[in-house]
């Protein structure tokens, strides 16, 4: 077994590998760029080596620097994580030349499966079912249009060397093919240094289901069940689960056996994933094989009990698999939510900045529920524009899918992140979505359910009652604490008065306090909006980020952030400003004027921090609704900004190459 390994990656996956290596008694070496000097993975490793500037092309993607770091520290092997150099055959070969072991497959398997065009040709030869399409390289936009017409719309345009949703576009018409081809090729060039793209038929109502395989150097290969990864936005996975709520045992076995056959055909040696697209009739088609550890591997680990990183290390060290196919059991259900630094209310555009507060839920086993959080950040960490916007991967496991979803909902309510925008509100809302809970999924779920984008969720009657009860409970405890700090023994004069009103948005809910104890732990009976009586129980204290307690029979965890004369409550995907007031104060509050936001309809504002790639119009030009105005790149994704209505460009304030902040003015309209 290895004595020391180097992790050629950063963030949560580097931390993940370091944890398993530590359990195995293996020393670890981290590498880091200037931007990651104070990163968590650097602190966790036994040693750390600086490898260059923030840009990945000058640090994490420079294989010579990784090899030099191995030589300097005596690392015998390299775990590449995912992304960066994980699927680069030349890196694997360069390590072998230096006598350093690559913890992953051999170069031949990476070359055969790492290129989407070649992998489909290989899969066809191996009699693996593939999606109809054109397996050759598309030369130009005219060629793309011709091929798409032959295949039939809709089509998927994909970067041959792509991954992570980059360099992918769906086209439903000739016009979309031409634009999608250019965008996919441009993204592929900037992200992977390879602008080749191909086209295949886009399967309608598709589900993205992948099979985890594990193989050694002695001819043994097994599959560890499947993961459903259908909840995606911009072709990037957001929520994954294991097993799939769609597959039956017969289909699972057929997919697993095909995946193993493909792995054996390329002499695969490590953990890998064979991805399939599955239609509504359970027909499945090979998409690609990821010759590395997947981002979503924790859900497989949670339902099988198998540490995939440990198996990768053991296989790389030459050991035989100790696990037989008959040993694999899927026990329970696991859900993974990817927490991204992005604004769900702005079409999930990236957000960068410092984590001024980062308080994940407690990890561990709680009864029959397990909570796991894979992350590479901590409070004070910075989410950089140079790398992927992932903050953490929150996972829950329970005996049933419904229980795992409920556990995830509760864990998301307890996950406190401040300083940047993030997608927790969307994830929390998703856990309550009827279609998601029923398992009626497709890769078009987000686009279908949120065609106009994700908007703030408004509480219904019962939810408003819970939010009002929490707001009042917070105010009662706050007043009681102030009373005690001032030295008085009796409660504040207004603390236990009967008649209160809680303002949520523009609505005022009357709340009657009946009886109870305000001091922590509190227990009071209230009547909200003239409805049924609720008992509020909580041991929450001022300053705590999460309010835990019961409202009636409902257990609640909600995030509390103080605002002027009230609190912001974040719960179940809802975010409201709530102010608990005595009735007389509420009467005055109703008289306060409402501040209206400024009109920005004549401006094109930058929706995220990013760099201007191109400006598609000129001053004085008349533009029709839907036409491209500009392209902004953020975190390696090109975002096309289009006109929302017919306009005339009055002035242009930004130029290609400019780095812009959120809401920076790009152009003005007449």
**What composes the largest sheet?**
9 strands, antiparallel
Q: Helical element count?
A: 17
Number of domains: 5
Which spans have pLDDT < 50 for at least 5 consecutive residues? 490-495
Structural descriptors:
Rossmann fold, alpha+beta, 17 helices, 670 residues, Dna Ligase, domain 1, 8-stranded antiparallel barrel, D-amino Acid Aminotransferase, Chain A, domain 1
How is the topology of this model organized?
Elements: E1 4-7, H1 11-23, E2 27-33, H2 40-44, E3 47-52, H3 63-73, E4 77-79, H4 89-97, E5 101-102, H5 107-114, H6 116-125, E6 133-134, H7 141-151, E7 155-163, E8 166-171, H8 174-192, E9 197-201, E10 207-215, E11 221-233, E12 236-242, H9 249-265, E13 270-278, E14 284-290, H10 297-304, H11 308-316, E15 333-340, E16 342-343, E17 349-350, E18 353-354, E19 357-359, E20 364-366, E21 369-375, E22 382-383, E23 390-398, H12 401-413, E24 416-418, H13 424-430, H14 434-438, H15 445-449, H16 461-485, E25 499-504, E26 507-517, E27 522-528, E28 533-538, E29 546-551, E30 554-563, E31 566-571, E32 574-582, H17 583-589, E33 603-605, E34 610-615, E35 622-623, E36 628-634, E37 637-642, E38 647-652, E39 659-660, E40 665-669
Parallel strand pairs: 1-2, 1-4, 2-3, 4-5
Antiparallel strand pairs: 6-9, 7-8, 7-9, 10-11, 10-13, 11-12, 12-15, 13-14, 15-23, 16-17, 18-22, 19-24, 20-21, 21-23, 25-26, 25-32, 26-27, 27-28, 28-29, 29-30, 30-31, 31-32, 33-40, 34-36, 34-39, 35-38, 36-37, 38-40
Helix pairs in contact: 4-5, 5-6, 7-8, 12-13
Describe the structure.
This protein has 670 residues and is α+β, with helices and mostly antiparallel strands. The protein folds into five domains: 4-103, Rossmann fold (3-Layer(aba) Sandwich), CATH 3.40.50; 132-201, ATP-grasp fold, A domain (Dna Ligase, domain 1, 2-Layer Sandwich); 207-449, ATP-grasp fold, B domain (D-amino Acid Aminotransferase, Chain A, domain 1, 2-Layer Sandwich), CATH 3.30.470.20; 461-589, Glycoprotein, Type 4 Pilin; 603-669, RNA polymerase II/Efflux pump adaptor protein, barrel-sandwich hybrid domain (OB fold (Dihydrolipoamide Acetyltransferase, E2P)), CATH 2.40.50. It is 27% helix and 34% strand. The longest helix has 25 residues, at 461-485.
């Amino acid at each position: 077994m290895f004595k020391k390994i180097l992790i050629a990656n950063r963030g949560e996956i580097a931390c993940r590998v370091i944890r398993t290596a530590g359990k195995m008694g293996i020393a670890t070496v981290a590498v880091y760029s200037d931007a990651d000097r104070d990163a968590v993975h650097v602190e966790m490793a036994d040693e750390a080596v600086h490898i260059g500037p923030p840009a990945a092309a000058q640090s994490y993607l420079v294989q010579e620097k990784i090899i030099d770091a191995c030589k300097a520290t005596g690392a015998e092997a390299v775990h590449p994580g995912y992304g960066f150099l994980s699927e680069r055959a030349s890196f694997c070969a360069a390590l072998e030349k230096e006598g350093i072991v690559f913890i992953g497959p051999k170069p031949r398997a990476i070359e055969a499966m790492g290129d989407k065009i070649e992998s489909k040709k290989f899969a066809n030869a191996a009699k693996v079912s593939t999606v109809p399409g054109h397996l050759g390289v598309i030369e130009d936009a005219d060629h793309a249009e011709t091929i798409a017409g032959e295949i039939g719309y809709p089509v998927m345009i994909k970067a041959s060397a792509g991954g992570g949703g980059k360099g992918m576009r769906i086209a439903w018409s000739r016009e979309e093919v031409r634009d999608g081809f250019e965008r996919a090729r441009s993204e592929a060039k900037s992200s992977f240094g390879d602008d080749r793209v191909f086209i295949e038929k886009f399967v309608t109502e598709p589900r993205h289901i992948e099979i985890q395989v594990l193989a050694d150097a002695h001819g043994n290969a097994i599959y560890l069940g499947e993961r459903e990864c259908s909840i995606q936005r911009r072709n990037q996975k957001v929520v994954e689960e294991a097993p799939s709520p769609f597959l039956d045992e017969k289909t699972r076995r057929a997919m697993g056996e095909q995946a193993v056959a493909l792995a054996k055909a390329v002499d695969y040696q490590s953990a890998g994933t064979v991805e399939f697209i599955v239609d509504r009739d359970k027909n499945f088609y090979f998409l690609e094989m990821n010759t590395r550890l997947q981002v979503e591997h924790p859900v497989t680990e949670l339902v099988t009990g198998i540490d995939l990183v440990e198996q990768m290390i053991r296989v790389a060290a030459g050991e035989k698999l100790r696990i037989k196919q008959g040993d694999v059991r899927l026990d329970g259900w696991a859900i993974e939510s990817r927490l991204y630094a992005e604004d769900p209310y702005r079409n999930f555009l990236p957000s960068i900045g410092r984590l001024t507060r980062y308080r994940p839920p407690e990890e561990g086993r709680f009864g029959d529920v397990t909570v796991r959080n894979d992350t590479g950040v901590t409070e004070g960490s910075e989410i950089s524009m140079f790398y992927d916007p992932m903050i953490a991967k929150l996972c829950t496991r329970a005996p049933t899918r419904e229980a795992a979803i409920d556990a995830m909902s509760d864990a998301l309510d307890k996950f406190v992140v401040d300083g940047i925008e993030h997608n927790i509100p969307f994830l929390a809302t998703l856990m309550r979505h009827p279609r998601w809970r029923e398992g009626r999924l497709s890769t078009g779920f987000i686009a279908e359910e949120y065609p106009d984008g994700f908007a703030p969720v408004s509480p219904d009657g019962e939810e408003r009652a819970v939010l009002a009860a929490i707001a009042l409970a917070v105010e009662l405890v706050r007043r009681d604490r102030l009373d005690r700090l001032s030295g008085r023994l009796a409660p504040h004069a207004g603390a236990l008065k009967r008649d209160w009103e809680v303002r949520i948005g523009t609505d005022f809910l009357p709340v009657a306090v009946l009886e109870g104890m305000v001091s922590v732990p509190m227990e009071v009976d209230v009547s909200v909006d003239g409805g049924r009586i609720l008992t509020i129980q909580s041991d929450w204290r001022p300053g705590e980020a999460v309010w835990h307690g019961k409202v009636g029979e409902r257990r609640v965890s909600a995030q509390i952030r103080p605002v002027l004369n009230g609190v912001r409550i974040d719960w179940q995907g809802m975010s409201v400003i709530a102010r608990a007031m005595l009735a007389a104060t509420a009467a005055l509050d109703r008289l306060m004027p409402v501040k209206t936001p400024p009109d920005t309809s004549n401006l094109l504002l930058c929706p995220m921090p990013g760099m201007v790639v191109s400006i598609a119009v000129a001053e004085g030009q008349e533009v029709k609704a839907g036409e491209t105005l500009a392209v902004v790149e953020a975190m390696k994704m090109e975002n096309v900004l289009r006109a929302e209505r017919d306009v005339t460009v009055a002035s242009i304030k930004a130029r290609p190459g400019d780095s812009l902040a959120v809401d920076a003015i790009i152009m003005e309209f007449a």
